[in-house]
């Protein structure tokens, strides 16, 4: 298998279109035509991980955090990013990052975080906006069913737990071809009236090119009439963070001790105890201070995240138990998820979980 052949599998797990605009995901280093020998999965693709890949004869590293986040003007080995990039290039090792593409996935980082804490029926905390589009097209009535099937196969018509969703209406279309036309129905130069079906379906933004390809390949007309519009609807299945409930309410201190044990953190920084039971819990793996207001708005009793600054603890407003468990700890199980996912999909080469701990934070 070449790298370009594993990319669609990775995009099934973490569609690059789900990533935040600020992020840098996908194939960061390497040639997509390279044959894969083995894959090493890690959290951070730093120099020691590249060395582990060399030792284990892996020529593709799949990492959570992108080692290349902002642009490099020089690659001289003067810092940890440049050293990792140099070592990877010198040893023909490719690097692919998933980061917020997997953060925003309904089965990704925050679902794993929620499951780790035993939250029931977790839902997206901050659903993604401006990501749902609608396709509207017109087709002869006798071709409507086959066209819809092709669009469904391309990913259109999925809404939450449902797929193959569409709306159709009947009407009469008219057209007249010029001398250069080659109409499927009617005669060039003569106005033609045809019984047509209007098909409307929604789709996720990152699928647009695939949807249009299916439309053009399966529509019988020489010229396809269609329109695409962006909807204001939020996408309830994609977004940052999750919120759910514990099976039973817990005392605040008891709850934090449970979080500490489940996540393996060396310490928890938290806001003042409010002497109220913890039942509804919001989580966001990684840096999540921006979601404090969302946790409050949705009535969470506790919000577990990382990288909180001093003044941000005040934002709990004596209504919420706010806890910082550490960046790595809040995402620590994602590499295991990637290994499990790829192992089920690929049997032609090894998918290896890295052994080195890349957490840069230590606790006394």
UniProtKB/TrEMBL annotation:
Alphabetized UniProt keyword annotations: Metal-binding
SUPFAM superfamilies: NIF3 (NGG1p interacting factor 3)-like (SSF102705)
Family matches, as InterPro entries: DUF34/NIF3 (IPR002678), DUF34/NIF3_bac (IPR017221), DUF34/NIF3_sf (IPR036069), N-reg_PII/ATP_PRibTrfase_C (IPR015867)
Pfam families: DUF34_NIF3
Superkingdom field: Bacteria
Gene3D superfamilies: 3.30.70.120, NIF3 (NGG1p interacting factor 3)-like (3.40.1390.30)
Family to which the UniProt record says this protein belongs: Belongs to the GTP cyclohydrolase I type 2/NIF3 family.
Name assigned to this protein: GTP cyclohydrolase 1 type 2 homolog
